[in-house]
Design brief:
Distance between the termini: 51 Å
Radius of gyration: 28 Å
Strand content: under 5%
Shape: flat
Helix content: 25-40%
Order of helices and strands: HHHEE
Structural class: mainly alpha
Largest sheet: 2 strands, antiparallel
Number of helices: 3
């Protein structure tokens, strides 16, 4: 599939990319090659092949929620480099 210089510049404008004049021809050729490959993939017979979102089966490894005791403030702040009134002291971020 051919892609024109105008289309490359239009997409670059939408993506807010600055492309030099020397790169427009090269990008048009590369994008055209990619689109030709996608057209080739469209010719593959996928009848009876279920749609997938991943190439492999994914399973989540979630654990059951269990009620647990929380840390007491002294244990939570035991290794804090700086603490202030029962809380972590950190630099002010604006």
């Amino acid at each position: 599939m051919k892609i024109t210089k105008t289309e490359v510049l239009h997409v670059a404008h939408l993506a807010r990319l600055e492309i030099g004049d020397t790169d427009v021809d090269r990008l048009a050729g590369q994008i055209g090659t990619i689109l030709d490959y996608v057209d080739t993939l469209k010719q593959v017979d996928t009848t009876g092949v279920p749609s997938t979102s991943h190439a492999i089966t994914l399973t989540n490894a979630f654990r059951e929620d269990e009620l647990q005791n929380h840390l007491d403030p002294e244990a939570a702040l035991a290794n804090a480099p700086e603490k202030d009134d029962g809380a972590f002291a950190v630099p002010k971020v604006i």
